[in-house]
Structure formats: C-alpha cells, structure tokens
Design brief:
alpha+beta, five-stranded antiparallel sheet, 34% helix, elongated
Length: 555
C-alpha cells in the first residue's frame, strides 16, 4: 500500500501545474483506495493566494475551501461540500480541532451518536448517507506553515482505521503538504511578480495631441513580463510599444523592466523603430550573457527573450513607422471601419540576434484605431488574422469604439490570460497649427526668420513666447547656416500644451552643448537655448538632421 502511494506521489511530483485544486485532486486520487474509501482535501484561503500564516499563528477560525474530493464509489457518494465551496467548520469538530492543535485525529468508530456531529449537521447527514464508519483527520503542515487538512473515511464493509493506518496517513499528509507548499510558493512568486510588474508599468497614460483615446490591458494572470508604453517624442510624435518577456516570476518582471527602460531611452533618442529594436536586441543578448551560468547556452534564459512591437506615429504628416520582434503584431481600423493588418517584416524574438530589423512605413488617416498585440508563446490570438476577424465581429456590434474593441478582443482569451494589448485612436494636427518656411542658405535670412516666427506667434495669440522664440530661432538658424550647405527649413508646431520649434538642414553633424570658458568668444548659443526652453534635442532625417526645442505654452 505504502509503495503504491509513494509511486503515485512521485508521478505527481512531475506535474508542474501551479493550480492548487488540480494538485489537491491528484493527491486525493493517490490516497484512494490504498488509504481510504473517501478522501477530502480542504485548504486555507491564504494558500490559494500564495500566502501563509506565520508559524505558530492560530488558524482555528480561518475559512476553508474544498480543494478536492475523491471516492471509491465515484459519483454515487455525494460530498458535503462541492469542490470550490467555502465552509466555516464548527470548533467542536475533529476537523477544526486538528487545525487548532495541528495534531492528527483518529476516530475508529464514527457512529451517528458522536456528539460533535450535531455541530456540523450537513457533514453528519452526508457521512450517514455514505455509510462512513471510520475517520482520520490530518493537518497539512510544512515547517510550521499550515496549508489545510485532509480527511480520510472508510465506509460500508471496509475495516476501521487503526494506529498503523494513522501513521501511514501522516506520512502521506507530509508528502502531500510538501507538494501543496511548492504550488503555494509558485503562486506566491507569481503574485509578487505581478505586483512588481504593476509597480513598474505606467499608472496613467499620457494625454497627447497625437492620440485622442488610449486603453491598455495587461493580463491579470500573465507571466509578469508583459509591458506597454506610450512615449511622447519630439515634433508632437508618439511611440507606442507593447511587449512581453517570456518566462515566469520576479526574474521575468525584472527583465521586463530592464527592456522597458532601455526602449524608453532609445525612443527618446529619436531613433526609428527598426533601430530601437536592433539596439534592444543587443541589450537582451548582453543581459542573457551576464546572467548565464558557466557552460549554459547564453540564450537559455527566457526572460530576456521577448516579443515586442514599436510604432512611431506623426500627427503632422499622418505617417506611421513600425517594426516588430517575435509574434507581436498591429491591426489598423480606419475611420470608415475597414480592418487591416499591415504586413510587418518578421524577425525572431529579442535576444536571438541574427538579421537586422526592417521598418514598415504606412500613412494612417486621422481617427484610425491602432491595436497593438504583444503576442508571445501562449498567445490565444497567434496571428494578426485572428485578431482582425475578432475586431470585425466587434465592429459589427459596437462600432469603432476603442474601449469596446479592447474588451471584445479580451473576451476570446482565457480569463486573466493572454497578450498585452494597447488600443489608441490617432489624431492629426490641424494645418493651421503647423507653419513651415524654407530659408535660402544665406545668413541674411536669419533676421527674416525671426520676423516670420514673431508674426506666426501673433497669429496663434502666443505673443508671450515671441521674445524667447525669436532668440531660439536666431540661434538654431544661424548654426544651420554656418555648418551646413543647402536650404534650411524652419517649422513651428502649435501643440495642445507646447510650442515646438524645429530647424532642419542637410548636415549630419550634431551640435553639442558644452560649458564655455571665460576666454571663449562663442559656444554660448546652445546654453542660452537650453535655459529658454523646457526640452531640446536632435534627430536624424533622411537628408540630414533636425534640431528641435519645446516651450510650455502659457496657461
């Protein structure tokens, strides 16, 4: 009997399921019929949440949830409580007493005259119907941590339990408790990872002129490696990012935070999506090498292997540039309800190395909805076509509402599981809020540029910024004339909260801010610009570069 039970428990040890109910049911099946005719497993509510009472704490009043029930007679024996039911067991019963003093109970003769049965009439009635006549109650305890209890019954013509049976049941309960504690710790790790992940994700999505609406979803029971970002960029542009780092637990959440921090930094450097993912791929490989054990394959750590999609949208031109790694994808819903999935160049997950990333360029009309899906190995929507079909169904019932689309896609997933999702509706800056002027390569045009900028600010009723903007324009245009050849383009953008000034030229040389010495005659222009503006930077273009600044508009 003992050998058979141990064999079943060894097989159970191969099951890595983090589900308490499944594990408890396997334990109950292992004890029938070798130990008992009927077995019921009850667990504390804390166990299901991965938590535990401190060693020595009394759990006599803690509610119990039925986690498993197994009978030799199958469905012909009706349990007092169904699996999943919560019960408050009265204190005068051997079940509650065993939880209180953590001692096993052997009731050799379980007759209907037992006084404690009157305190639990439902259980007493079922015991009578099942013709159970002998009972053992064993607490499930690991190193002072109480997980629950197991109740074993013999019925009908089976011999009553004896002391030898109690000893065998105690050994079984010890093994069962160890297995349940492994599951509890797995749940605890997963809960900690989710808490860590939530703490590392943005709590509030930014309000931007480029996006009219934004909704996000990270699965409640995910790996802990799902993430999303909406990153404001220069020129009123915005980067949308959704990804998932494969793996489980706190290590995965930490790996996710590392990748997310890097991608935010790269995006703020005004790199294109393909360059962002290329550099992120290198970082993922480096992280794997730093954490790999001697002799282990450097890509063996799953938490640095990640699916990711990066989309950069420009509300001035309506242009969209995107790249992806792994199974992530994008679905676009146009204002007239047409659903499409742009054909993005495929690439292995981050951390695999290999081919360079390719960017896909498309133009998107204002009012379009973008649905970004992180993908991943457990993605119930493994390709863009599946998501596209689901979006079609949602549109037929609810129309092109961002939140409804997000909820509709979520409904096809397992509860709490699935990929990370991000849904946004694009906007376009009105043409009257964007002013562009091309200057000839002549330093005499600097004064004209100042005059033009002042007149444009007057038209926008932003005279309060006219003086500082004239200084900024003068410095940036002068530098462009001095260090580049060809025409210079000056662009002003009147964003919702920001005045953006951009000067583009044909040179790839980037101006560097430095602290001038007292004997230097020049080099103070960029310092002045930095003091006058809130943000400034440079981004490369196909024909050269663009130097930009941002000033907060008056309230």
């Amino acid at each position: 009997m003992v050998t058979c039970i141990h064999s079943k428990l060894e097989n159970l040890a191969m099951d890595t399921s983090p589900d308490v109910f499944r594990t408890a049911q396997k334990l109950a099946e292992a004890a029938v019929p070798e130990l008992a005719d009927i077995v019921a497993v009850e667990v504390l509510e804390l166990t299901l949440r991965g938590e535990a009472l401190p060693p020595g704490a009394l759990c006599g009043k803690s509610p119990l949830r039925r986690a498993a029930f197994q009978s030799l007679q199958g469905a012909r024996v009706r349990p007092a409580y169904a699996v999943g039911d919560v019960s408050q067991i009265p204190p005068a019963t051997p079940y509650r007493q065993s939880l209180t003093d953590l001692c096993p109970r052997l009731i050799r003769d379980l007759n209907q005259d037992s006084r404690w049965l009157a305190h639990d009439p439902m259980r007493a009635r079922v015991i009578g119907e099942a013709r159970a006549h002998s009972l053992m109650v064993i607490p499930l305890v690991v190193q002072g941590v109480v997980l629950g209890l197991v109740a074993l019954y013999r019925r009908a013509d089976s011999t009553p339990f004896d002391v030898g049976d109690l000893q065998a049941a105690a050994r079984f309960a010890d093994r069962a408790a160890l297995r349940l504690d492994i599951v509890r710790r797995h749940i605890q790790d997963r809960v900690c990872a989710r808490r860590l992940q939530r703490a590392l994700l943005p709590e509030v999505l930014p309000s931007l002129s480029a996006l009219d609406a934004a909704h996000s979803y990270v699965p409640v029971e995910g790996s802990g490696g799902e993430w999303f970002d909406i990153i404001p960029l220069s020129g009123a542009r915005v980067a949308l990012v959704v990804g998932v780092a494969e793996g489980q637990g706190a290590d995965t959440a930490v790996g996710m935070s590392q990748l997310r921090a890097v991608i935010v930094t790269l995006a703020l450097s005004d790199l294109g999506p393909d360059d962002i993912l290329s550099r992120l791929d290198e970082v993922a490989i480096r992280l794997a090498r730093e954490h790999v054990a001697p002799g282990q394959h450097p890509f063996g750590l799953k938490y640095v292997s990640s699916s990711c999609i990066c989309v950069v949208y420009d509300p001035v031109t309506g242009h969209c540039s995107m790249a992806r790694a792994g199974d992530s994808h994008l679905v676009v819903i146009s204002p007239d309800g047409i659903v499409s999935a742009p054909g993005l160049a495929s690439h292995p997950p981050l951390g695999a190395g290999g081919q360079p990333f390719e960017a896909t360029e498309i133009d998107i009309p204002p009012g379009s909805i973008l649905l970004l899906n992180s993908g991943g190995s457990d993605d119930p929507l493994p390709d863009a076509q599946a998501t596209t079909e689901r979006v079609h169904a949602v549109l037929s019932r609810h129309g092109p509402d961002a939140q409804e689309i997000l909820e509709g896609v979520r409904r096809v997933m397992s509860p709490g599981h699935g990929p990370a999702l991000l849904v946004t509706r694009t906007r376009a800056l009105e043409s009257e809020n964007v002013a562009t002027w091309t200057l000839p390569p002549d330093t005499a045009a600097v004064a004209d540029a100042r005059t033009w900028a002042s007149q444009q600010l007057a038209a926008w009723m932003l005279e309060e910024l006219a003086y500082t903007t004239a200084l900024v324009v003068s410095e940036l245009v002068t530098n462009a004339m001095r260090y580049s050849t060809g025409p210079v383009e000056l662009r002003l953008i009147n964003d919702d909260r920001t005045l953006i000034c951009e000067v583009s030229d044909t040179s790839s040389a980037v101006p560097h801010l430095r602290k001038p010495r007292l004997v230097d005659e020049g080099g103070r222009g960029l310092s002045i610009v930095t003091q006058l503006t809130q943000h400034q930077g440079t981004r490369y273009t196909a024909s050269g570069k663009t130097v930009w600044t941002e000033q907060s508009r008056p309230t």
